[in-house]
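Support request, please re-run this one:
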Amino acid sequence: MKLVLQLSRQDPALARAEAEALFPKAKALHSELLLVDGDAKTLGRLVMTRFAGKLVAEASNCERLRLPAYKSFAVRVSRVAGKESSSAIINSVAARVKGKVRLDKPKTVLRVFTDGKKYWATEQVYEHSAKGLAPRDVNARLVFHPTSLQPKYGRLLVNLTGVRKGKILDPFCGIGGILLEAADMGLSARGVEISEEYAEGARENAWFYRMEKKIKVDNADFLEWGGGEFDAIVTDLPYGKSSGLFGRERGELYLEAFRKMKKHSKVLVVMAHGDLRPLLKKAGWKIKQRFEMYVHRSMRRYIHVCSF
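Re-run finished. Output below.
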């Protein structure tokens, strides 16, 4: 089906990359709007899309929108540009729909997206809410570690791989934040962790969320690990004494790890506190996309989407 997506204003470029990874044939309608063709069920994976709706009509002005009848409906407006008031758009659209206007629990929410030049009328099928991620918040997990990624960012990294079904590997999994999000989205998740304490923590978190059948964690040094092939590798690299460098020089560890990752997958999404492009290129990876983002306060992370 044709879907219109309104992207997060927090980082439109990164939001677009996430959506395009899962909906490859996306068409930009505006810097904050995408038209995609796909299954509405996939929308539940997105963390940087605000709203999405099934396209039912489009026109250069509200008066030309041809809309079906509904048993009960409410009109909502997402105006990304233009000067026309939301109330004027709502009144114009509501006057052209046969059915009962019901603001409280309508059967259908008609969401109209506009850039001031064109209008896209949709039946809303998705609205992002952080409530669905809250149960797996870092502070809600059975085993806690301050450097573990929040669900939003773990989910984002997995989505950037574009893998919709298959197996994900995190070679520096810590207590399993990325693994939890991959498993929650129906993927098979494998983690490798050199720290016995963290590896056990990842297993306990998988058990706590009843995901132990989808998540497997090996207590091993990834550089010596002999696992198989995966659809993608997703990882947030260790960066300090509390995160499993075990006395090794950071740059040397990263370079060796990047070289070994090529034995296990042709797709890599990696987050770190610095620019990894020199090391990734030296290891033979092609950097397709790179993003800078603030995860909280002044902490900046760099996301690299790679292939070879």
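The domain at 2-128 is CATH 3.30.2130.30 (VC0802-like). The radius of gyration is 22 Å.
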